[in-house]
Write a structure and sequence with these properties.
The chain has 298 residues and is an alpha/beta fold. Helices cover 46% and strands 11% of the residues. Helix 2 packs across helix 10.
Length: 298
């Protein structure tokens, strides 16, 4: 059932910015920073979503997902590989036995501008090939027109088509205009059956920001208080440095707490982030930075 959207919190941009500034000013000890960076690696959805993607590129990305850096000790695998539906079966074979999930974008990603029948075929194709997770995009045009029931029903229908696969619902926050709209879209997605809510496709700017992520985490917290159900969160797009990743983890811990501090309930949608984290860990291990030329291009 569509939730009541009339009594939601109203977000003051200045207030949210002040809260974010406090998260970003937290001091982190060197040992905690190292563990935080390893945790961030374990939460990454290593992603390739380009028209020029090939079988070889996907296979190479899968190898990197399993072996982020062969010379570093105790480096975890990433959480998932995220690809287009046509590459799901290739990724599943390459990752067999690794425990790494295969996520697939669907529903006419990234625009979402297609008939529901086409979106369902897209979703079922990915699920039938063995995708563990489906990343769908909401119909932003319908949302901005106030057709909230349409958006709710579409998410619920896609959720059913996912079968056993988890559903990550992309709000594309850069097109929602206001923080209050981000909160409304989060509520609709969660009550419609989302297992995760996700900021962005990575194809629209601005993509993930600490501000919109804070609002979405706040929505997840309230949803948990009301229902007892834990929903995951995935900021995606524009998160490229270790420093920013640690700021997201600080915010996650302070808003939602320890139970969300794992790959089952938090992901980073990123590709360049992994190399930056590896560079920081190499520095901690050896005392020297390695050139970016020593890391594969994702």
């Amino acid at each position: 059932m569509l939730p009541n959207l009339n009594n939601l919190p109203v977000y003051d941009t200045t207030g949210v910015d002040e809260r974010i500034a406090r998260f970003c000013s937290r001091s982190i000890k060197s040992s905690s920073k190292k563990e935080g960076l390893k945790l961030a690696i374990s939460m990454i959805d290593l992603t390739t979503l380009e028209g020029k993607d090939t079988r070889g590129k996907v296979q190479q990305l899968c190898y990197k997902a399993m072996h982020p850096h062969d010379l570093l000790r105790d480096i975890p695998k990433v959480a998932a590989i995220c690809v287009y539906p046509s590459f799901v079966s290739i990724a599943k074979k390459a990752l067999e036995g690794s425990g790494i999930h295969v996520a697939s974008v669907a529903t006419a990603f990234p625009s979402g501008q297609s008939a529901l029948e086409v979106k369902l075929l897209d979703t079922k194709s990915a699920a039938d090939q063995g995708a563990d997770e489906i990343d769908m995009v909401i119909s932003r045009g319908e949302f901005l027109a106030g057709n909230y029931q349409y958006v709710f029903d579409e998410i619920a229908t896609i959720k059913e088509a996912c079968g056993k696969a988890h559903l990550k619902v992309i709000l594309e926050t850069g097109e929602l205009d206001t923080l209050d709209n981000v909160r409304k879209a989060s509520e609709i997605a969660m009550y419609a059956g989302a297992d995760f809510i996700k900021t962005s496709t990575g194809k629209v700017q601005p993509a993930a920001t600490l501000q919109v992520t804070y609002v979405m985490l706040d929505a997840i917290k309230d949803f948990f208080i009301k229902t007892g159900k834990m929903i995951g969160m995935k900021p995606a797009g524009g998160i490229s440095t270790s420093k920013i990743a640690l700021q997201y983890l600080v915010m996650l811990n302070e808003v939602l707490g320890e139970k969300w501090m794992n790959k089952n309930f938090f992901r980073f949608g990123a590709s360049s982030l992994l190399n930056d984290i590896l560079m920081q860990l190499v520095k901690a291990e050896t005392g020297m930075y390695q050139s970016s030329n020593y890391f594969s291009k994702d």
